[in-house]
Amino acid sequence: PMETIDQYRQIVRNLLQQYAAFKSSRNTVKAEVIIDPAKDHYQLLYIGWDGSRRVHDIAIHIEITGDKVWLQRDNTDLVVAEDLVEMGVPRDVIVLGFRPSQLRQYTGYAVA
To answer: What is the mean pLDDT of residues 64-90?
Structure first.
């Protein structure tokens, strides 16, 4: 149902905002949440400078497709999928898109 998908959207937004609020030890790098509501893409991006090194990294990318929440990238030391479950997204709705399709059956989450 559409209201369920709307709930997933709100959960994803809230979770990324919570992550973005974490203070980095590098105050020259900022966290930005990027939301594309038309295509249901949600990203947490780190951008700035770490000394002389440019930082421009997509830490998390979540996409809502059909009735599934696809975790396309999780480049964090967090457990994003588990946080989504704790916030109310069922395991059988979450797809770990960054895992090869033949291995997803072993993840405890949706296959596709």
So the answer is: 96
